[in-house]
Amino acid sequence: MSTTTEPAGPVALLGRPVRPAAAPGSPGQVLALVRAHGELTRAELVELTGTSRSTVAARLDALVDAGLLAEVTPVATTRGRPPTRFRFREEGGVLALADAGATGVRVAVTDLGGRILDQQRHDLPVGIGPEPWLTEVLGHLDDALRRVGVTRAEVHGVGLALPGPVDGDAGTVVSPPIMTGWDRFPIRDWFAEHLPCPVVVENDANAMAVGEHRSAHADRSSMLLLKLATGVGAGLVIGGSVYRGFDGAAGDIGHIQVTAPDEGPAPACRCGNTGCIEAYAGGWALIRDLRAAGHDVSSVPEVVALVKAGDPSATALSRRAGRFIGIALSDAVSLLNPEVVVIGGDLAAAADHLFAGIRESVYARSLPLATRRLTILPSTQGDLAGLHGLAAAVADRLYAPERVDAIVAAG
To answer: Per-residue b/e over 71-101, b at no fewer than 16 CB within 10 Å?
Structure first.
């Protein structure tokens, strides 16, 4: 485990699309514009909102009084005093985040702009059940808060990413294949008893997709994030926003079933079905197959280490896994025609052989028009993509224009 501090900068909010739900020139819209642009002057806000200078000045005063904006000290020039600029007050509190996979969780504390102040990874399987898992995560978050030098009272929002279908409105996971005992457990309510602030519950692949899109691909209108780790999942960004599906089940690409006559009997999957992509190509499936080949492995990093060392069994299985993943991905590419596919997760560290297998299947099976300009890339954010996405999701909830308007109106 290690504690890291990132350089300054609201990484998780870069490229955030601004779609204010409040009236033009309202406090919520003004704050949304400042957050999106980084810093703005009164004149720039007048132009962007289409409202009068006096209205903008009143909104800025209210937002400064509410502790949401701060003035940037002008730098003197030979041509006179430059106009005052306003910035989002990122140091006004912190966010507490936990990005979970099947076997571990990465906890972090960030400032309100998404800059990571402290983060650590812990081995913690979600299969132990919701209350033991949440209790341990809360303890890790308390440790992180102490390292940063803040208290629970300074936490403005909590974000949790979990490896299962999420009902974001209810703050629960629904019928998760690998999370025994979690079905509809009131996660948000449990956390709110300990940290009385807004709690966002998100699917892990969706959180990664938001983090990757806003950090590196904000100019792309559509993106598919493929998470390859113990399991296999996907997050979809369509029209600049995450697409979750009607019941939050969109992106469960790992449980698409395939027929592979040359492979013998279809392997059993953890979800109870047979022949799922994950049962052929998930990290747990590679561990199973490598053990059968005589290797003493028990984790995805150990699988990756064997691939990088050039072990013949590991490299062959990695390329085979890529081909199976590519079968499911090719269907998604033909259906959705994304601009870019980003591949992340612990298993993606075995990139060369895995990517070769994925590209082989995608370009052989997808419609030529759908792949003509398709880009398949590795993650730019690595292990931190989910945290960046969670920070953005929590901040979007906290500073939704209508919520900011209510805060300012309440005085």
So the answer is: eeeeeeeeeeeeeebbbbbbebbbbbbbbbb
